[in-house]
Amino acid sequence: MRFPDSYFEVGSSFLEFVRHAAPETLTAALDGRAVDVAAAPTGTTVVALTYGGGLVVAGDRRATVGTQIASREIEKVYPADSHSAIGVAGTAGLAIELVRLFQLELEHYEKIEGNALSLNGKANRLATLVRGSLGLAMRGLAAVPVFGGWDAAAAAPRIFSYDVTGGRYEEREYYAIGSGAVFARGSLKKLWHPGQDASTAVTTAIAALIDASDDDAATAGPDVGRAIWPVVARVDAAGYQRIADSALGQVVADLFAQRRNEVTR
Amino acid sequence: MTIPFYVSPEQLTKDRSDFARAGVARGKAVVAAVVAEGILLVTQNASQSLHKIAEIYDRIAFAGVGKYNEFEALRRAGVRYADLRGYSYDRVDVDARGLAGAYAETLGEVFTAQPKPFEVEIALAEVGAKPQADRIFRIGFDGSVWEADAFLVIGGHADELAAALRPALAGDGGVPSLADALRVSATSLLRRPADGEHDPSAVDGLEAALLDRQAPRRAFRRLAPAEIAKLTVP
Q1: A251: domain range?
Q2: pLDDT by residue (tens digit) across A93-149?
Q3: Is there a domain that residue A4 lies in?
Q4: Phi/psi at A30 (nearest 5 deg)?
Q5: How many whole angstroms separate alpha carbon B205 and alpha carbon B140?
Q6: Residue A121 maps to which CATH number?
Q7: Domain count of the fold of chain A
Q8: Cβ A83 vs Cβ A152: under 8 Å
Q9: Contacts B218 to A, Cβ<8 Å
Q10: Please, which of A28, A131, B78, B170 could form a disulfide with B150 given CB 3.0 to 4.6 Å?
Q11: B63 inside domain
C-alpha cells in the first residue's frame, strides 16, 4: 500500500488526521438512536492533589453497572505522556478511549513537531477531545477527565479539571471526580496541607479514596482480601511514576491500623 | 502544434535516476549501525533543529538524506502510518518491514508517475530484544529496498564510507559498543574534504540518536552534543 494523499497534509493533530483518513476507527456517532445508558459500565472516583515537588493522582478500581460490580480491577489513572497524568471517570468504554486518544494526540504532536506541547497546550487539547464527545454526553454517556502534570516552564505541578462541555478549569491544591468525588473532596479538605511531601501525599490520596468508598457504593476501597490496591501515580520534575503495589500495601495497612484505633466499639 | 519527441523508457528511467542520484549525493551521509546498546544513527548536520534523524514509533527510527522538504514529508507520513496502525490494531503490530513496503510503493510511484522523482534516500531501523532481531532497511529514490545486516550508509559518498566503516561495524569483532561505533562513524563523517584528516572541532556538527534496546516502550533517544563529545573521546 502506498501512503494515501491525506498522509502528506499539513497538521500535527492525530485526531484531525484520523477523522480525515480513517473516520471508521473513531467512536461511532449514534445517529439519534436511543441508548440503554444503564447497560454501560461506569468507573468512578479519581483524586488529584499537589505536594511540594509534584502531584499525585489516584483512582479506585471499581466499575459498576447499576448496582452490580462490573470490574474490580479497572484502571482509571494513566500516564498522558512522560510528565503528565490523566484520570477518568464516567462511562468506562468512552473514558478509556479518551485516554488512548489523548496519549496518542500528545505523542503524535511530539513526533510530528519534534518537541512536546506546553502543559497549557496539553490541557487545552484535552478540552477539545472532551468537547468532541458532547453529543454522547447529552445522551447520558459521559466521560470526564482530571489532568495534571509537571509544568517545566513554571517549575511547578498543575491540575486541570473539566466538565462534559469541554470547560477547562485550573485547580489549586486538590480535586476529585466521579460519584465519590464529594466525599473524597471533603476528606482532602481536611487532610491536604501545603508543603506535604510525596509519601504523605500518597497516603492522603488513599485516605480520600477510602473515605469516598465509605459513603459511595460505586467506589471501592483497597481490596485487602485480593490485594488489589488503587492505582496511584506520582508526577514530578523527573516524570511520571506509578507507585508499586508493594509500597501501597504498606500504606493501606498503616491507614487501616490507624483507623481501627479510632473505632470506639 | 509541436509533436512530442519519442523518449525510450530506458532513457527516461536513466535520466530520472541520474537526476535523483545527483540530488541524493549532495546530502551528507547517515550511518545506521547495530550496536550492543541498540541501533545508532548518526550524521553530520549543522542545524540543531532541522533533524535528519527522527522517531517514528516505539522501536522504529527514520533517517533521510537529500531534499529536506521531501524526506520530511515522508517522515510525517511514516509517523501517521505507524500511529494509525497502532491505534487500529495494537502497538506491537507496527513494524519496520511494513513501513518500508509503504515507503517503497510511494517512492516507486512518484519515480514513474510524477513530473520529478524524489531526491531522497531513507533508512529505517527497528531495534529488537537482541542484535540478531534488529532490522535496518534502506529505501532508494526509485522505491528499491535493501535490508542490511549490521550497518548501512545512505547519502553522499555512501559506498566509500561503507567500505571504510565495514571492518569496525561488521567485522569479526562482533557487535560494537555504542561508543566505538559512534567514534569510528564520527571520524569518517567528519573528515575534512581538503586533506582527508579528521576534524575534531566539527564534533558539534554531529546529529546522533540511539534506539535503546533496554527502553520499556519508546526506544528513540537523541544524544545531546555533550553526550556525543563524551562518547567520542578515545
Answers
A1: 40-262
A2: 889 999 999 999 999 999 999 999 999 999 999 999 999 887 777 777 889 999 999
A3: no
A4: -95, 0
A5: 25
A6: 3.60.20.10
A7: 1
A8: yes
A9: 107
A10: B170
A11: yes
